[in-house]
Amino acid sequence: MFKGLILIDNDQVDYSLALVDVVNRLAGEEETCVYGLGINLPEKVKGLDAVIQVNAPTIQPKDSRLTTDIIEQVHRKYQFDSIIILATEFGRMVAPRLAMRLEVGLVADITDIQVDKRGKKMIRPAFSGNIMASIVCESTPIMASVHPNVFQTADLTKEPEVIDFIPTDLKASSIEVLEVVESAESTVDIREADVIVSAGGGFTQPIDQLQDLADELTGVVAASKQLVDRKKAPREIQVGQSGKTVSPDLYIALGIYGSTQHIEGLKNVKEIISVNTDLGAPMNYLASLVVHGDAAEFARKLSTKLKG
What positions does the entry give for FAD binding (predicted)? Predict the structure, then answer.
C-alpha cells in the first residue's frame, strides 16, 4: 500500500485535490491510499480516501511554521510514502521547512512523473528551463512541490473518511499575518480563463494594447517570462514554469518563441494560434494555426476585424 499525503490549501482547494493524480502516478502499480490534510477547512472536500482535519480557530491557515509542525506530527503518526504540496508562495515556505525537519530531499516544481524499474522519477525543468531533468528521490517520504493546474484529477466524487487530529505542543507564531487587499484588476486569474491572449519577446508594443482584443474574445491577457523580466508585464499574468500553468480552450501566442520554460506552463490547451516572424519557433510546432508575420500588427488587425 502506497500512502500519500497532500496539503490542502484553503485558497486553492480544487488545485490541491488535483494532487491526488501525483500520488497515484508515484505509486505506479501499487495500491494507493491518499490522505488530505486540512487546517480549518472552509468546505467539505471529496476525491480522497481520507481527510485529516485540524480544527483550531486560533491557528492562522497561512502560518508556515505551525503548518510545518502539524504536518510533521501527522506524518510521525501515519508514516506516509509521499508528501505533496502546491508550489504557491505559501507552499514554497512550508515544503523546504518540512523537508529539513524530516531530513529528506525535496524536488520542487515537478511537471511529470515516470515510474519504471529504475525507480520513481520526477521531472522538472533545469538550467533556466532549457532541459528537463529526471530526479530519483531515494529518501522516504518522497517530497515534491507542484505548480497549480499542472496535474488534473477527473474523479473527485469519492466520499473520504474524516479523521479529526489534535496537534500537540504548538507554539504561537511570532509572525503577524497581514490581510492583503487586492485591487480589482488583480482578481482575474489567468488559470481560469477559456481564452488567453499572450505576448512574448517578439511583441513590440505595450502589452496593455492587447486588452481590447482580449475583451472581444471574452478572454484575458497574459505574458511570457521574457516580458516579465523586462518589467513590461506583471508577474501575476506570467505563463510558464516560474509563472502559472494554464489550460484554456484557445491560446493566442503573440511573438512567443516557445522555450521549454514556457511550454511547461501549457497543459491540455485545445487550440493554439501562434503568430511569429520566426517560422522555426518551437511554439509553431504546437500550434493548430501558424501566422507568419508581426504579432503586434496581427493583434491590431484582428481586434479591428472583430469589432466590425
Answer: 238-242, 255-262, 276
High-pLDDT (> 70) share of the chain, %: 93
Q: CB atoms < 10 A from the CB of 57, how many? A: 6
Q: Any known ligand binding at 262? A: yes
Contact indicator for 204, 260 with CB cutoff of 8 Å:
no
User: Is 38 annotated among the ligand-binding residues?
Assistant: no
259 marked as part of a ligand binding site: yes
Summarised one tens digit per residue, pLDDT across range 246-261 is 999 999 999 999 988 8
Beta bridge partners of 221: 197
261 is in an annotated binding site: yes
- The annotation status of 241 as a binding-site residue, yes or no, is yes
DSSP symbols for 155-199:
---PPPEEEE----SPPPPSPPPPPPPPPGGGG--GGG-SEEEEE
Q: Is 174 annotated as a binding residue?
A: no
Residue 120 belongs to domain spanning: 2-164
Q: Say if residue 268 carries a ligand binding annotation.
A: no
Burial class (CB in 10 A: 0-12, 13-18, 19+), 49: middle
272 falls within a domain: yes
Annotated binding-site residue? 238: yes
| Residue 242, annotated as binding a ligand | yes
Percent of the chain with pLDDT over 90: 69
170, part of any domain:
no
257 annotated to a ligand binding site: yes
Three-state SS at 230: coil
224 in a labelled binding site: no
Please say whether the dihedral angle defined by the alpha carbons of residues 290, 296, 299 and 302, taken in this order, is positive or negative.
negative
